[in-house]
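Board notes (copied after class):
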Amino acid sequence: MLKKSVILIPTIETPNQVCDFVWQTSRVLSNHGNYVYILSFEHASSLKEILSGTFNKKKFKFISTKHNINYLKPIYLIPFRRFNFITHINQLIYFLILQLILKIKHFSTKKYLHWMFFPHLGFLFKTKIFFWETTYDIIDFYTFPDSKQNKKIEQGKKILLNKSDHLFAISHSLKKYCQTLTTKKISIVPQGFSHHIFERKLEKLFIKISKNKPIIGFVGQLNERLDFQLLIKLISENQDWNFIFVGPKDLQKNLSTKKIKNLINSLLSLGGVTWVDQVPKKQIPSLINQFDVCIIPYDISHDFNHYCYPMKLFEYFYLGKPIISTPIKELELTKFKNLIKISNTAQGWENHISDLLSKPWPKKYQLQQRQLAVDNSWTNKIEAISQIIDGKI
């Protein structure tokens, strides 16, 4: 396991909304004695704002620490950041200066490592300081509906794939795609699963769920990723089942259209549908445990979904639940053949669900699911990456 290294993780998320894979990666790395810094460009401060705040006796915090993880707030030196090219220049300047500062602050440390997830920030590596290594942790097939923005993301992927020192992918499908863009070796590592939450004793569930009908459940954000056509048809024609959706509406201004908003509302207004907006993470296992069948209803006409590897899969697996999914490439692998039912039509889903509800889910499949979930823990993932970075594999 990596230890006593400086790890810098740039993110496109806001400091108070760091996504789960960034947080989990940071948590494991910091727990093993690394100096972890999360850099978000979403809430940067300009020199003008800093000076104005100083005159008004307002204190600016450029670094805050929580759970032994450091969160950085960038400083933009050049004004007029409303122009994109000025913003990029400011980000490049700050990124270069930051690397030097961290080198000085942790001078005796032997390893300095960028840990990259987002191709959106690939432009940062057009220039790179020699004593820093870069790891590209490929966890999703990022894309964008706007062609101009999508072109930038594709350029960012190519930069990271060819500038990074270490390349890792969490799935065979992601590796296969990314390998067409680089001659460098890409290693497959575990996906990342928060087993420490699921291995605890199930908590008492404070949300009332009616058990008068079979429960078909989904855990995740309600957004453009869902196959609304499939779901609305399936639910409308099967009122003898309860469908539960656990997760908030995720209406992003750059992705979610008015049409998507209306589709989400139409889905949640159907008879037989229960929506649980927010629930503490520690309650998620208890909720999933109530489901008779778990679903992953992603619209695979979008490349982002077609090449994804849903984290929720291992949450379902750990609790030994039968699963039905749309034809996501990674879930069609042979190792999942008996563990996941696949279909792309409402009729196919209806047939699979009816079959799964007609008999108990085999114990041998539950044991296989639990083992796959444990094998894909965050600790196992970071350990696998560490072994390769340290040259032990």
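Comment from the instructor: Residues 198-375 form a domain with the Rossmann fold fold (CATH 3.40.50.2000). Residues 84-105 form the longest helix (22 residues).
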